[in-house]
Amino acid sequence: MEGDYEKEDLERSLPSETPHYPARPHYYGDIVRQALFAIGIIMIIGLPIFTDKINFSAFFIILGILGVNLFAGLTNPKQTVSIWGDFIVSFIGLVFFELIAFFYYAAYHRVLDLYFWFNQIIAILFFVSLYFSVKTLRGMLVGSIEEEQ
């Protein structure tokens, strides 16, 4: 009989097979968080390298980096506002950096230029972040509609 209690205790302490966030089965915030964090790191590395090509104040760029990092840190499955924030930041970031890459290429026609790829990689990471933010939003909105019915 004692062995049965030990077996039950062991089974309770084992990780379950259920998703990490059972309340949000379509939650992809971990991927969004990693993409936004990577974007922040790439932007910090690129800021001193491309100072001569950036047409914005360093103060505003640093605020942008901090904002991206802030949203990466706030991302969680329990706060709907953080999911919406990730979506908005990803959308704006994608449009902003893709336009910079596009206009830089249009002006100089240099595909092998490091500054072009710096902006293009950031745009791609924002694209990934946007995709998974939308998937999370869709799962959240569809889930709330199903709960109402």
Q: Can you count the helices?
A: 5
**Amount of helix:** over 70%
Shape: elongated
Mean pLDDT figure: 85
Distance between the termini: 47 Å
Return Rg in Å.
Answer: 21 Å
**Secondary-structure element order, as H and E?**
HHHHH
- SS content category: mainly alpha
Total strands: the figure is 0
Total count of domains: 1
Flag low-confidence runs. Answer: none
> Which band does the percent of strand residues land in?
under 5%
Specify the biggest β-sheet.
none
Q: In brief, what are we looking at here?
A:
The protein has 149 residues and is an all-alpha fold.
Explain what the structure shows.
There is one protein chain. The chain has 149 residues and is an all-alpha fold. It has one domain (25-148). It is 77% helix and 0% strand. It is built from 5 helices and no strands. The chain has helices spanning 2-13, 29-49, 58-74, 80-108, 114-148. Helix 3 packs antiparallel against helix 4 and helix 4 packs antiparallel against helix 5 (114-148). The radius of gyration is 21 Å and the shape is elongated. It starts with a helix and ends with a helix.
